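Section 3.1: Structural characterization of target chains.
Under the original work plan, the team committed to producing a structural model for every single-chain target entering the pipeline before any wet-lab resources were allocated. The record below documents one such target. The sequence was received from the expression subgroup and is listed exactly as submitted; it comprises 140 residues.
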Amino acid sequence: QPYLLNTTNISAHPKTAERLLDIVMAEISYATDVLKVKLIAWCSDAGGDSAKMRRLLDQKLPHLIAVDCWAHQVNLVVGDIFKIKGSFIETIDNALEVVKWFNNHSRALGILRDIQCQLHEQPHSLILPVLTRWTSHFLS
């Protein structure tokens, strides 16, 4: 079961591997000491500083599995599948055009939401995937 732990705003600081490791070690302590969770793996961004941080983490805690961005890996696998199955690409392209059309026609989008509410369903958001934002692919 994956858990999102605390978030740390480091936007005003250099994102060095050492700084990231300090943050990760604090989160691991929080997870094990406060939440009483036994960690078996740590997932982080796929960037260079995060990759170095994972190497440092592996040296410090060799029993822990340190992997890069799962969403990125899944995206690459799905992309490979779509290359094999050409019909998927056409279907996805058509679905994206439908999402774009609704998002550019607020009246039609409003009618769609009203119908969803009338059917006692929570309205769904029409989200376009963004190439570098892996979660948007999952949500869309």
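The mean pLDDT is 85.
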